[in-house]
C-alpha cells in the first residue's frame, strides 16, 4: 500500500472513453514535448554508472582443505561402511519416507486451500468495492451532468461579459480619440 493516497481523476462509469482521435492527439503532443533521446539517455540528475573494473580472477580460498574430501585410497572396508550406511538410510526412507511425503503433501494442500479461500474472499471484496464505486458514480451522474452544464453556461456568460467590457473599453478609447482631435 502506498504511503500517500492515490486519487484517480476519472469516472469510468459516467465519462465516455476517449476516442482514438483524442488518444492519438495526446500521444502526438507527448511525443512533441519529449526530446527524441529520452529513451536512450539517462536523466542528467542521475549519477554516471560506475565503470566495471575487470581484474585477474581471484585466488581460491585457502581456508578450506579440500584434500580430506578426495579419496585416494578406497579400501574395501570404507566401501563396505559407506554401502552399509546407505542401505540403512534407504531402509529408513522406505519405512518412514512415504508417510513423511504424504504428511508434507497434506500440509501443502492445507496451505493451498487457505490461500484459495483468501483469494476468493479478496475477489469478492474487490467486486463489492467495484459495485459500490459504480453505484456511487451512477448516483451522482445526473448531478455531475447538471454541474457541467452550469459550468459551461457560467464560462459562456463570463466570456460574453468580458467581450462586452472589451467593447465598452474600445468605445471609450474611440470617444477619447475623437475628442482629442
Contiguous helical run count: 3
What's the mean pLDDT score? Answer: 85
What class, by secondary structure content? mainly alpha
Q: How would you describe the oligomerization state of the chains in this entry?
A: single chain
Major β-sheet annotation = none
Radius of gyration: 39 Å
Large-scale geometry: elongated
Q: What is the chain-wise order of helices and strands?
A: HHH
Poorly predicted runs: none
Distance between the termini: 74 Å
Strand content: under 5%
Give me the count of strands.
0
Helical residue percent band? 55-70%
Structure overview:
It is a single chain. This protein is an all-alpha fold and about 180 residues long. About 65% of the residues lie in helices and about 0% in strands. It contains 3 helices and no strands. The longest helix is centred in the middle third of the chain and has 64 residues, at about 75-140. The protein is elongated and about 130 Å long. The two termini are about 75 Å apart. The model has no long low-confidence stretch (mean pLDDT about 85).
Quick summary of this structure?
By secondary structure, this protein is mainly alpha-helical. The chain is built from three helices and no strands.
Amino acid at each position: 500500500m502506498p504511503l500517500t493516497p492515490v486519487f484517480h481523476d476519472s469516472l469510468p462509469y459516467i465519462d465516455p472513453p476517449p476516442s482514438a482521435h483524442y488518444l492519438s492527439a495526446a500521444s502526438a503532443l507527448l511525443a512533441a514535448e519529449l526530446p527524441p533521446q529520452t529513451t536512450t539517455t539517462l536523466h542528467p540528475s542521475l549519477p554516471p554508472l560506475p565503470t566495471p573494473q575487470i581484474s585477474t580472477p581471484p585466488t581460491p580460498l585457502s581456508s578450506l582443505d579440500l584434500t580430506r574430501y578426495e579419496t585416494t585410497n578406497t579400501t574395501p572396508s570404507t566401501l563396505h561402511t559407506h554401502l552399509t550406511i546407505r542401505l540403512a538410510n534407504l531402509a529408513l526412507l522406505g519405512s518412514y519416507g512415504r508417510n513423511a511425503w504424504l504428511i508434507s503433501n497434506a500440509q501443502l494442500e492445507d496451505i493451498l486451500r487457505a490461500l484459495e479461500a483468501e483469494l476468493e474472499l479478496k475477489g469478492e471484496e474487490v467486486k463489492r468495492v467495484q459495485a459500490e464505486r459504480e453505484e456511487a458514480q451512477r448516483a451522482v451522474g445526473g448531478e455531475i451532468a447538471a454541474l457541467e452544464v452550469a459550468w459551461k453556461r457560467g464560462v459562456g456568460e463570463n466570456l460574453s461579459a468580458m467581450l462586452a467590457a472589451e467593447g465598452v473599453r474600445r468605445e471609450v478609447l474611440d470617444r477619447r480619440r475623437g475628442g482629442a482631435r
